[in-house]
Predict the structure.
Amino acid sequence: MESATLSEPGAGEGTGSSTVADLLPLAAERYGDAPAVMWKEPSGEWASRSYAEVGETVAELALGLIDLGIEKGDKVSILANTRPEWTYVDFAALSAGATVVPIYQTNSAEECQYVLENSDARLVIVENEEQLAKVRAVRDRLPKLEQVVIMEGTAGDAIDLDELRRRGSGHERSEWEARYRSVTPDDICTFIYTSGTTGPPKGCVISHGNYRAMLDMTQAVNVVSPGEITYLFLPLAHSFALLLQLGSFDIGATLAYWERDPLKIIPNLAEVRPHYFPSVPRIFEKIYTAATSAAEKEGGFRKRAFWWAIKTGSRVRDLERRGQKPGFMLSRQYKAADAQVLSKIRGLFGGRVRQCVSGAAPINTDILRFFDAAGVLVLEGYGMTETSTAATISTPEDFRFGTVGRPFPGCEVKIADDGEVLIKGPNIFQGYYKNEEATSETIVDGWLHTGDIGELDSDGYLSITGRKKDIIITAGGKNITPANLEAEIKQHPLVSQCVVIGDRRPYLVALVTLDPEAAVAYAAENGLPEDPVELSRNAGVKASITAHVDQINSKFARVEQVKKIEILPNDLSQETGELTPTLKVKRNVVAEKYQDEVDGLYS
């Protein structure tokens, strides 16, 4: 087995908390008047609150939960979008000694019921009437659920946040302090339910010690620095967003929350001007398309000038990383390229971003190099809920495009004989709630079996090549991992999702969907109806995507080439059951739902 590990973490800067329960009280005391959170008001202005102000709110909410009878170890669920109030109630529950159980705001009533019932939640905090309606629909099937708290507005069958704070005002602060000081690293911090691409979600049991170890690891490599702004749109029900929240408060940085509108993400970046931007590949793909589409459409001199600027930026980046300075002529060329093109691309991210991180799925390395040439470093990391978020990291000082970096200090990674990635470290979760069989299959002799297939190079950089369960074995017996092929096909501006199919089949085929926004723009430019079903049948659309696939096929061996494609009439979504809340494709659902289309490609 190949393996890699780095030295143990050093003493990072931070609150010095021993658990996540005492993190917020210590942060409020240490960082005081520094801005902790930012959000956009209905007036259009960005507002903020200091660490001291957030600390005051959290204390009152925590005491309010204690007033409602929440005991140490009780399960408190949060069903809400990413917003400041999510952070307040999360820290309130944690500091009251409760175990927090997040639920994705996009989950259906039945999915919410599963998590609330399986976790034994006593109380759920919902965002608004829309989320409250889901709880109401399944309340009679949740005998252990005693209380509902609502963040926004009021309801007869729920307690609003103002009332919760008033309840807390009747208790002494010493009661809160005693509660958060009683929490130990062995106590359970959170149950995070996996997305469930191949079955019902499993509740990952993560201790305070697990997350405290993960925070120490991130601080050892300066993932987020004091005073920096992180723009956050990722769901706080996901472990990545949760780690960023905890890490930001631990180090004294600022969280800027999105407007809860996907169309506002790019405009928000320009307004907030973050230093750190965590995202998923689809957002970077959209920004890439926005940055390149105008030049591609204009063609001629403008197109050549645009790509000359990118090439010039790339040459300068390469020299800088070798510790060299560009010569006189290249410096002049770079100055012109930066003024005309590169600075405008940086402007899409606000102009001062230090680093972006892409996770959850593969991203085309051409996109990474494109942004790097413009001075926007987008790096990949790797981990899963079972590793309390992360296991490997790429940093501005230590990265290789096409890999997910090297193990965090204190974390060990090795490759099993069958290619599976195995991980060991203090961040490995405690197991799956009420599922000892799955736990024993996943953690063997202290090693987490990730289910991912990967490779370690001689310098310890990890590359993820696919999922064990996603491997396609063709009729000819060839093993193929479809993830990278799908990522390449998704680079076409019109393509939103791609699922390559070919298990026990003579060749590979692909089901693709159209990006709704790009499709509307394409229809307007070409005088076509905007109806997605009509566009999916349009010969010109299919010819364009087919030509793109043919070009990609030239990079792959014959057995790995996609022979035919089918454009589906609608994009994949969570509402229709084809995507998880973190936008991962449920391959088995897609293959079953579109069985007739697949059979047609092989007829």
About this structure: The domain at 14-217+234-251 is CATH 3.40.50.12780 (Rossmann fold). The first strand starts at residue 2 and ends at 5.
